[in-house]
Design a protein that fits this description.
By secondary structure, the protein is of the alpha/beta class. The protein has 2 domains: 19-138 and 325-350, 3-Layer(aba) Sandwich (Rossmann fold); 144-319, Dihydrodipicolinate Reductase, domain 2 (2-Layer Sandwich). It has helices spanning 28-39, 53-63, 72-76, 93-102, 117-129, 144-153, 184-187, 191-206, 222-225, 324-340, 353-371; strands at 19-24, 43-49, 67-69, 83-86, 106-109, 134-136, 161-170, 212-220, 248-255, 260-266, 275-283, 287-293, 301-307, 310-314, 375-376. The strands form 2 sheets. Strands 14-13-12-11-7-10-9-8-15 form a 9-stranded mixed beta sheet. Strand 12 and strand 13 (301-307) form a beta hairpin. Helix 4 (93-102) runs parallel beside helix 5 (117-129) and helix 5 packs antiparallel against helix 11 (353-371). It is globular. The relative contact order is 0.15. It binds nicotinamide-adenine-dinucleotide. The site of nicotinamide-adenine-dinucleotide has 23 residues, from helix 1. Residues 24-30, 49-52, 71-72, 87-90, 92, 110-111, 137, 139, 194 line the site of nicotinamide-adenine-dinucleotide.
Length: 382
C-alpha cells in the first residue's frame, strides 16, 4: 500500500468559509450594515429583522435575504449564524448582544455599546468568556482624514499633546423629536451619547488612548423640552414619549497622563454652527485640527507649526470617500477570520473593552452634570 504524503500544509476550509450574518434593524444603521456585509466578500446576510413590515420585505427581496423576522429574538435564536449585527435603539444593544454572544455568535454593534457602562461591561465580559469578537461601529475614526492624522501623529511632530477640544455641534438637528432618540430609557441620553461618543472616540484614538480619570460636566435641554430644534421635521407619532435627555452638553475630561479634553455635543443650539464636527489637538511644538463642516469631504485638516520661528499653517489635501461603516465591518470580518485559524484564546483584545471605556466616560459626564461637580470615571479591573 502506498501513502501519499502531502508536500504542503492542508488548507483549512474555516479560513475562507462564508460567514453567515443576521442583521437587526432597518433604519440608517441596520440598512448600512446590511449593505456593507452584502458588499464584502466572504460574508452573506441570511437573516434580517425589523419592525417595519414593508421595508423588511423590500430590503429582504432587493438584497436577497432568505429569512425575515419582525423580532430580534427569532433571528438570534437561529443556530446557523456566525454574526449578529445590531442597528437598533440603544437600549436594545445589550439584550441582543448578550443573547448572541451567549449562543456563540460574534457581534457587530452600533455605538454606543450600551446605555450604561455597567451594561456595556456585561457585554464585554460575555465576549471574553465566550472568546468571541465584539466590535462597535465607531465608523468616523475610519475617515481618511482621521487616519491621516493618526499616521501623522505617530512620530509626535506636534510634541506632547496637553489639551484637545472635540465637538459635534448641530444648529437644529434633534433626530426625531418624540422618537426613541429623545427618550432616556430607550437612548440612554441625548447628543453626548449619540454624537459626542464619536468625537470622544476620535480624540482618544488620536491621543493614543489615554485613560479618562475624571469628568466635570454640564447638560441642558432647553430647546428640546420646548419642542424646538427638530430641524422642521414632524414630531414622531410616538410623541407621547418624554423629551428627557439633554440637547447640549459640555465636559472637561482629565486624563491619567495629565492631558485633558474639552468635549461638547449638541443636537440643537442657537449658534453659528450647522453640522460641525471638530477635533483640535494642542501640542507643545505644534497643533492639528480636523474640522468637518456639514459632512465636508475635502479641506478638513489644518496643521499648525513654526517654520524658522514663523507661525505656519498647512492644509494637507486629503479627500474623504464615504464608506466608513464598510471599513470597520471589513476589519471586523478580518478579525474573525484571523481567529478561526488560531488556537484559543483566539480573540483577545477584540472584546470591545475600548468601547466600554467610552461608555464609562459618558456615564461620568451624565453623573457630573446631574450632581454639579467633578466625578471619577469608573475603571475596569485589569
Ligand atoms: N455609527 C453611526 O454613524 C450611526 C448613525 C445612525 C445611527 N446609529 C446608531 O444605530 C442605532 C439605530 O439607529 P437608527 O438611526 O438606525 O434608528 P432607527 O429608529 O431608524 O431604526 C431602528 C430599527 O430598529 C428596529 N427595531 C426596534 N425594535 C426592534 C425589535 N424588537 N426587533 C427587531 N428590530 C427592532 C426598528 O424596526 C428599526 O428598523 C442606534 O444605536 C444609533 O445610535 C449609528
Amino acid at each position: 500500500m502506498t501513502t501519499t504524503i502531502p508536500t504542503t500544509a492542508p488548507t483549512t476550509t474555516t479560513e475562507t468559509r462564508e460567514l453567515r450574518v443576521g442583521v437587526v434593524g432597518l433604519g440608517f444603521a441596520g440598512s448600512t450594515h446590511l449593505d456593507a456585509f452584502t458588499a464584502l466578500p466572504g460574508a452573506r446576510v441570511v437573516a434580517l429583522a425589523g419592525q417595519e413590515p414593508a421595508r423588511l420585505q423590500e430590503l429582504g427581496t432587493s438584497r436577497g435575504v432568505e429569512h425575515l423576522y419582525a423580532d430580534w429574538q427569532d433571528l438570534v435564536a437561529r443556530d446557523d449564524l456566525d454574526v449578529v449585527s445590531i442597528g437598533v435603539p440603544n437600549s436594545l444593544h445589550h439584550p441582543i448582544a448578550m443573547a448572541a454572544l451567549e449562543s456563540g455568535k460574534h457581534v457587530f454593534c452600533e455605538k454606543p455599546l450600551a446605555v450604561t457602562g455597567d451594561l456595556a461591561a456585561e457585554m464585554v465580559r460575555a465576549a471574553e468568556e465566550n472568546d468571541l469578537v465584539l466590535e462597535v461601529a465607531y465608523n468616523h475614526r475610519r475617515r481618511a482624514d482621521v487616519a491621516f492624522l493618526h499616521d501623522y501623529l505617530r512620530d509626535s511632530p506636534i510634541g506632547e499633546i496637553y489639551h484637545a477640544r472635540a465637538s459635534w455641534l448641530r444648529r437644529s438637528g434633534i433626530p426625531g423629536l418624540g422618537s426613541w432618540f429623545t427618550d432616556r430609557q430607550a437612548a440612554g441620553g441625548g447628543p453626548l451619547i449619540d454624537l459626542g461618543s464619536h468625537v470622544l472616540d476620535i480624540a482618544l484614538h488620536l491621543m493614543g488612548e489615554p485613560r479618562v480619570v475624571t469628568a466635570s460636566a454640564v447638560a441642558y435641554g432647553e430647546l428640546g423640552r420646548a419642542g424646538r430644534g427638530g430641524g422642521g421635521k414632524p414630531v414622531s407619532a410616538l410623541s407621547d414619549r418624554p423629551f428627557d435627555v439633554e440637547d447640549f452638553s459640555s465636559a472637561l475630561l482629565r486624563f491619567d497622563d495629565g492631558s485633558s479634553l474639552q468635549l461638547q455635543a449638541s443636537w440643537a443650539s442657537y449658534s453659528k454652527v450647522h453640522e460641525d464636527i471638530e477635533v483640535e489637538l494642542l501640542g507643545a511644538t505644534g497643533g492639528a485640527r480636523l474640522h468637518v463642516d456639514d459632512y465636508s469631504t475635502d479641506g478638513t485638516l489644518t496643521l499648525y507649526s513654526d517654520v524658522n520661528g514663523a507661525p505656519t499653517v498647512s492644509k494637507p489635501a486629503v479627500h474623504v470617500p464615504s464608506g466608513h461603516h464598510q471599513s470597520v465591518i471589513a476589519e471586523f470580518l478580518a478579525t474573525i477570520r484571523a481567529g478561526e485559524g488560531a488556537s484559543a484564546p483566539r480573540y483577545a483584545g477584540h472584546h470591545g473593552s475600548y468601547a466600554l471605556h467610552r461608555s464609562r466616560v459618558v456615564d461620568a459626564i451624565y453623573e457630573s452634570a446631574a450632581i454639579g461637580r467633578e466625578v471619577e470615571v469608573q475603571g475596569e479591573a485589569r
